[in-house]
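LAB NOTEBOOK - FOLDING QUEUE
OPERATOR: T.R.
BATCH SIZE: 2
PURPOSE: Compare the predicted structure-token outputs for two unrelated chains run back to back under identical settings.
PRIORITY: normal
REVIEWER: second-year student, initials M.K.

ITEM 1
FIELD SEQUENCE / FIELD STRUCTURE:
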Amino acid sequence: MHTAVKIEPNYKNNQALYVLDASRSVVVVNQLLDPNNKNEYMADIKAEYAELRAEYLDSQKDKSFVSLAKARSKRL
């Protein structure tokens, strides 16, 4: 979620990806280095991240926040 919401939108080369563990990174790198599959793979990732961002932003609408001063005044 963090990669989709915070990191990927700020990359201009469109290749910010999250990989669960190192053993899966080989498959991801192979997909990125394959000129026949790279564009389709990146389009799939971008679509997935866009969906995750939309879900995250939708979940934030229901939250209400208080100011730092108010939170500190009610710390206990």
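ITEM 2
FIELD SEQUENCE / FIELD STRUCTURE:
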Amino acid sequence: MSRIKTYQPQNVAFVRGEGVRLWDTDDKVYLDGLSGIAVNGLGHSHPHLVEALQTQTEALWHTSNVYRITKQEELAERLCQLTGMDQAFFSNSGAEANEAAIKIARLYGHQRGFEKPAIIVMESAFHGRTMATLTASGSRKIQAGFEPLVPGFLRAPYNDLEAIEQIAENADQIVAVFVEPVQGEGGINTPADDYLPKLRELCDKHEWLLMLDEVQTGNARTGHLFAFQAHNIIPDVLVTAKGLGNGFPIGATLMSNRANDLITPGKHGSTFGGNPLACTVANAVLDIISDKTFLKEVQNKSAYFAELIESEIIPLEGVETVRQAGFMIGIELDRPCKEMVKLSLDEGILVNVTAEKVIRLLPPLIMEKEDIKTFVTTLRQCIVKFLEM
């Protein structure tokens, strides 16, 4: 096999998708509880997205950012209007978008006269696999073998404001706090309700940038268009990707307040970022997920998920805790459970395992209650079977 083994894929290949279902090469059908790891929020082959992409494909694919791209301008304006941000830069992935955020923080620090600007990041965080983003992440597993890592990061426990204050007292040249509103890869770790607002206060107090990685939490996954919008704050830098393109690669780094106008011509760029195809799809996604009725439905259905999990899953011996933020659900068992991925696959549902013991669910936001019930019932059977192994 010529493909490099960066992953250890399950022995299944999907050839067709429609809504919340996938079909493999043997025509077996599966309920998707992973959404391509929080990507396919609107499911598979959504008619509105298919039509938008087909129309744009027939018109124009690529011209480069040497020229104006009207679809990109439209997307930037819409995202800023919907989020309260001011400026946007487009790339091709969450890692690239986070890399841009890190560069913005460095620019901000040098503007303030700091020779070695430092960014506070969190334990158990995940920001990507480029050299800077894997350094910012809190996983030795993804860092091992790539030393020396990028300097300029200070690490704090997640959901611990006092620790950040202590870092501020003992370190100088801090320029930003970089944080996920909910840690996805870290095991669906949800902070206290006042965590983000108090981080905003801390950043204002010290003149730091508040940079939010909403690659996974954004695009309606938590029941809000972006998770920070539940807390009545505005970040200085907002990063998103994944669900913004529903499977078409796109990343976005949005700026406001202290981060405005730091990127000037020549400071950053992307060959493919913000091309007409990607921006057309992202605009079509926003047509749907920015609708208040759609967001309310996501909130209602995530509450139904919670009800079923409380009655069907939590009582099981071996289930330690459940953490949920909208359509981000983590079911932590009392033992490592990577076997749950294949066991669930065999029963026709897709799940993921992260942080060794956490069954991670990231279903499409369009999953209806009937399918939610089927999914949870099947998942319960799989957990019972696993715990008896």
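REVIEWER COMMENT (ITEM 2): The CA atoms of residues 53 and 281 lie 6 Å apart.
FOLLOW-UP: none requested
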